[in-house]
């Protein structure tokens, strides 16, 4: 039992005071001796007595204050994603605060879970009718009219995906404790893309240290890296390289390809919603915009550069966990 911080401070003060009184008495006796008074006292014993009580008071007081360091470390662990709540026992004056903090963390986590469930319900509620309408459009005899309707349906579906991803990330970013391994996400995505592009025999060179983790929900990291790797697969001739490094408080993830690259004048533009580097290529132009928006929600960012492999080097920065 930790007990009361107030009681610890009082006891520590009394011990310290006792030590000071003993030390003061010893100094008084020594001064009197210097003036020729014959006061009898065991100086060594008195000094030991004084130092013992002063040290005991100091250590006892620090024992109570040390719990604040434990509280600080507990909060930091929650922020880094290493814990879901603050563990341990604290002085009676501090324990109610810790209990309320844990209750607040649980409430926020539950609120985010409900919001994400609602977003999933909304996605299901919108996508199913759209799929039915798309099926009926395919059965229309007017090919030109059907194509126009199909185009609008595709636009609606892409916008729904975009805004739901952004809403989900906004809720996820507000959640303390998000922590995702970069290597695990990259490995899973590579296995999937190797199956999808098996006929092209693309080579993936992934060099991600196992210790690298970001303060991002797993689904959102999958979304960002999935878009980047999908783009790289679309344009690469034969090879894609993925790496990561620590830069201050951020993890920098790079995706390079050996494709034709992007004109430097277009690199900033293709990060905007609906803009594609090649209008003849398939796609909505929302992939990189989604990556940019999700990264910014988490306090990160994305930039495009020229790759030493000849294609594009994408630099995704996210907060380290």
What does this structure look like?
The chain is of the alpha+beta class and about 325 residues long. It folds into 3 domains: about 5-95; about 105-175; about 180-320, Histidine kinase-like ATPase, C-terminal domain (Heat Shock Protein 90), CATH 3.30.565.10. The chain is built from 7 helices and 7 strands. The chain has a 5-stranded mixed beta sheet with strand order 2-4-5-7-6, covered by helices on one side. Strand 4 and strand 5 (about 250-255) form a beta hairpin. Helix 3 packs antiparallel against helix 4 (about 145-175), helix 4 packs parallel to helix 7 (about 285-295) and helix 5 (about 180-195) crosses helix 6 (about 220-235). It starts with a helix and ends with a strand.
Task: Note the topology.
Elements: H1 5-34, H2 43-80, H3 95-138, H4 143-173, E1 180-181, H5 182-196, E2 203-207, E3 213-214, H6 218-235, E4 239-247, E5 250-257, H7 287-297, E6 301-306, E7 312-319
Parallel strand pairs: 2-4
Antiparallel strand pairs: 1-3, 4-5, 5-7, 6-7
Helix pairs in contact: 1-2, 3-4, 4-7, 5-6, 6-7
Primary descriptors:
321 residues, alpha+beta, Heat Shock Protein 90, 3 domains, two-stranded antiparallel ribbon, 58% helix
CATH architecture assignment name of the largest domain: 2-Layer Sandwich
Q: Which spans of ≥5 residues are poorly predicted at pLDDT below 50? A: 274-285
Helix percentage range = 55-70%
How many distinct beta strands?
A: 7
Derived structural class: alpha+beta
Task: Estimate the global geometry from the Cα principal axes.
Answer: elongated
What's the CATH topology label of the largest domain? Heat Shock Protein 90
What is the residue-averaged pLDDT? 76
């Amino acid at each position: 039992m930790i007990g009361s911080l107030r009681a610890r401070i009082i006891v520590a003060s009394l011990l310290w005071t006792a030590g000071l009184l003993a030390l003061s008495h010893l100094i008084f006796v020594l001064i009197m001796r210097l003036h020729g008074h014959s006061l009898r006292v065991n100086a060594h014993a008195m000094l030991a007595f004084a130092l013992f009580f002063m040290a005991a008071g100091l250590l006892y007081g620090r024992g109570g204050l040390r719990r604040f360091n434990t509280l600080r470390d507990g909060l930091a662990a929650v922020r880094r994603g290493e814990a879901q709540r603050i563990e341990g026992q604290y002085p009676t004056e501090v324990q109610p605060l810790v209990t309320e903090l844990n209750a607040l963390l649980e409430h926020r986590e539950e609120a985010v879970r409900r919001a994400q469930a609602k977003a999933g319900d909304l996605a299901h509620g919108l996508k199913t009718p759209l799929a039915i309408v798309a099926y009926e459009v395919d059965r229309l005899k007017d090919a030109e009219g059907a194509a126009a309707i199909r185009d609008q349906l595709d636009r609606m579906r892409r916008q729904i995906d975009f805004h739901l991803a952004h809403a989900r990330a906004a809720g996820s970013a507000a959640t303390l404790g998000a922590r995702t391994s970069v290597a695990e996400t990259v490995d899973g995505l590579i296995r999937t893309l190797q199956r999808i592009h098996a006929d092209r025999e693309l080579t993936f060179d992934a060099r991600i240290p196992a210790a690298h983790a970001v303060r991002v929900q797993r689904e959102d990291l999958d979304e960002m890296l999935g878009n980047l790797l999908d783009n790289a697969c679309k344009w690469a001739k034969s090879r894609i390289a993925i790496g990561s490094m620590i830069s201050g408080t951020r993890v920098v993830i790079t995706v390079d390809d050996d494709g034709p690259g992007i004109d430097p004048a277009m690199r900033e533009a293709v990060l905007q919603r609906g803009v594609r580097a090649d209008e003849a290529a398939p796609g909505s132009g929302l992939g990189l915009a989604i990556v940019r928006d999700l990264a910014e929600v988490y306090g990160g960012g994305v930039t495009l550069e020229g790759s030493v492999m000849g294609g594009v080097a994408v630099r995704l920065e996210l907060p380290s966990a």
